[in-house]
Design brief:
This protein is an alpha+beta fold. It is built from 10 helices and 10 strands. Among the domains are: 91 residues, Phosphorylase Kinase, domain 1, CATH 3.30.200.20; 160 residues, Transferase(Phosphotransferase) domain 1 (Transferase(Phosphotransferase), domain 1), CATH 1.10.510. Strand 2 and strand 3 form a beta hairpin. 31% of the residues are buried.
Length: 362
Amino acid sequence: MDPSDPAQDYESFSPPTPEELDAILADFSVSAFVGQGGMGAVYRGVQIKLDRDVAIKILPKTFGADLNFAARFEGEAKAMARLTHNNIVSVFDYGETSDGSLLFFCMEFVEGTDLHRLIHGGQMTLEHKLSYLGQICDALTYAHSNGIVHRDIKPENMLIDNTGMVKVADFGLAKVDHTEDDISLGTPDYTAPEIYDSSIPNDHRADIFAFGVLLYQTLTGEVPRADSKPVSALGFDARFDAIITKAMAHDPAARFQSVPEIKMALRDIAKNPKPTLNSPATRSGKGKKTLNTGPRTGPATTRRRAAVAPVVPSKSGPHPGVIVAIIVGVVLIIWLLMAVLNQQDDPPPQPPTKGPFRPELN
């Protein structure tokens, strides 16, 4: 084992129990362990003086031979505490435990779910997805304007409260622009190429690359790979292909240069949707036949229309109007059965059910 390797040092980190942490964390009552990840562990607790529910994230004070980690942590904590935005998890306090072994953030506790759970278990409409993505854009735009790069954009860090409000979490891996010391942090599937290549400028455009990955995954449920199909081949609006390709360009100069550019492109899709195979116009035979731009609520299957020979009226057969009425009736029955079956798919977890949900991509 390389003692200077931060990743190896983190792998050996064993989080304390809530009772153990409570004993060394003054001013807080620690009630439950929430989870481990992002180079730390998260607990639920109460900030005693304010009687406020909070999330408490702890990190080992040192990572291998990275002697500057604690100092950088303090600088980043102060920067994150200045991020006051509706779509960013608020940081209330920071410090170290009484025994000096751990650093901690005290943050807003978000009651709800996260984008990862909705992607893999929920039934989000395209409208929901675009709303969440738009709110993430707002959070990143604000952070970037304040010199903060997230550097760990992924579904698990996109919390969603019970009113549909997105709260971007875990800026604990963020890096204040222009700091001299840097270690490669983040989640590999979402990490921009320049993070591993010091010859390429490393700035807020790393978040734009990660957002491109997040966009593909939010639409399809899968992280994009070299052999992945474009989302248009999976039934989504072809304009998403252009957004994802540009956001994930290898060269940062070829990407969107700011997050608002991405939001404008997404807003255009939201406000000017293309007709789909499941829209009323195409079901009635009118309008252009295109691939489905929204998610199916049932299992992802490919349906082919059977070839139907034209109806030729005969002198001795039924009246043509009767035949047409029968065909229309059969089609309507089939459509209703499909709708009922789709509604019986597994429902958990769902988009927000409490409070108003405003899906507009403003």
